[in-house]
Amino acid sequence: MRVRGRAGAALTGAALLVTAVLSGCDAGPAAPRSSKGASPGGPTASRPLDWTRCDAPEGGTEPGTSWRCATLDVPLDHADPQGETIGIALIRRAATQKSQRLGSMLFNFGGPGGSGVDILPRAASSYRELNTRYDLVGFDPRGVAASAGVRCRGDKEQEKAYREIDMTPDTPAEEAAFVADGTAFGAGCERHSGAVLPHVGTADAARDMDAIRRALGDGKLSYFGISYGTELGGTYAHLFPETVGRMVLDAVVDPTADTVGHARNQATGFQRALENYLRDRGQDPAAGTRRIAELLERIDGDPLPTASGRELNESLAVTGIVNPLYSPSGWPSLTAALDEAENSGRGDRLLRLADSYNNRDGNGHYGTQSHSQRAISCADAKARPTAAEARALLPEFRRLSPVFGPFLAWDTAGWCAGWPVEGERDTPEASAPGAAPVLVIGTTGDPATPYEGARRMADELGEGVGVMLTNRGEGHGSYGESACVTSLVDAYFLRGEVPADGRTCS
């Protein structure tokens, strides 16, 4: 498991955890298929989208709302546009004021591995104002859910790994098991999804986005990217600067950080969020951090019992603490879970939080978001740190965060260990000279994509392109949370009003 929030190490936040496939949408086949004889412009050049009515997820939208789904065929390998194809699953809700329609707005909610086909209907009420003039469009990126979704292991194997693998190994035997599990996971991905693994990287997904833009009939791409979606948006701007329309990047991935740099950023960000949580509870941050680190050490030696019969081990406990730090609305649940663990010696609440984060339902079924996440992350990143290199990071990472540092240091070695596909690059490209202004939003208390990364993204996009907006607050993402940010984003998308670079909302 890896903390989500960026491609290469990251998370979209507990509220955005999703199921693998949206029931009721005809999302097309999940395997590559032949398109020999396709037109020179590729399979999207002459084939209109066939939109059919589909059902949104239960509880995902207001009554009477009509959603339509389609599948767009794109090349499996964009370097071979007349070769095999895969289907990209799409979902759309039409603009409510058709006479004032500006075009389509494409969303990516993060992960990587989040299903936009599933998430957008659930989140659409937050974008009601934008929906007046834009068709809202969600998609499953390649390798995700209904778009040739990657699958690597079954529920029993996943449960066994969460139960038995120590993600902060303390002994040679634990370390060997940790590395072996990462290698076994990659082998399972190759066994079940080997044909798509070399082609699920962020640059390929960005090329798919341009195919979506063309299929929708839009001259420019209007795009809202959140968390990993900001990396995808920055990559699109780099590859297609001339077709960037109105683009917002919220909860921004640092484009200058490599695999270790992202882990370092997240150790800093989650520790910052933990300290802000402790201050809010009237506790000394240093003392509170020590207390939680000591709790984790005790759990490592003696896992806590739960009513389900499953034990809460250290790795699951860290995951349970991570989950509610994504938003202040989760802080009360963290307080209750820590109180139960410390005072009652039970792990029920922390285990429920970990299960939610790990996309495990009450029947023991795990979603495949983490499978897609790992496949995309490892297709992107060249770096393959060894166990020895991760071990060497421990002193620094423990200083950054006694609670999260060891987990994130070891994660650099476990995530792509023995991965069957080489990564594409060290850091993502985001420079976009000549592109229209891109609104880049950083929240000062963001745990998963720390604030500093937003400034770096704005700088990487280039002068006159990256427009920085600071949100002084807590949590992962600011639209819909900050009235100031929401009003500025709406004005930008609906009226083309670009805020002054360096504007602050508080």
Task: Provide a descriptive summary of the structure in words.
- The chain is α/β, with parallel strands linked by helices.
- The chain has a domain at 14-149 and 198-257 and 427-505: Alpha/Beta hydrolase fold, catalytic domain (Rossmann fold).
- Helix content is 40%, strand content 13%.
- The chain has 16 helices and ten strands.
- It has helices at 116-123, 128-131, 155-164, 172-193, 202-216, 228-239, 259-280, 285-301, 314-322, 331-344, 348-357, 369-380, 387-400, 405-414, 452-461, 483-495; strands at 52-54, 67-75, 85-93, 103-108, 134-139, 221-226, 244-250, 438-445, 466-474, 503-505.
- It has a ten-stranded mixed sheet with strand order 1-2-3-5-4-6-7-8-9-10, sandwiched between helices.
- The longest helix is centred in the middle third of the chain and has 22 residues, at 172-193.
- The radius of gyration is 22 Å and the shape is globular.
- The two termini are 34 Å apart.
- Mean pLDDT is 91; it is low at 5-31 and 33-46.
Concise overview:
The protein has 506 residues and is α/β, with parallel strands linked by helices. It contains 16 helices and 10 strands. Helix 7 packs across helix 8 and helix 13 (387-400) packs antiparallel against helix 14.
Itemize the secondary structure elements and their pairings.
Layout lengths: L51 E3 L12 E9 L9 E9 L9 E6 L7 H8 L4 H4 L2 E6 L15 H10 L7 H22 L8 H15 L4 E6 L1 H12 L4 E7 L8 H22 L4 H17 L12 H9 L8 H14 L3 H10 L11 H12 L6 H14 L4 H10 L23 E8 L6 H10 L4 E9 L8 H13 L7 E3 L1
Parallel strand pairs: 4-5, 4-6, 6-7, 7-8, 8-9, 9-10
Antiparallel strand pairs: 1-2, 2-3, 3-5
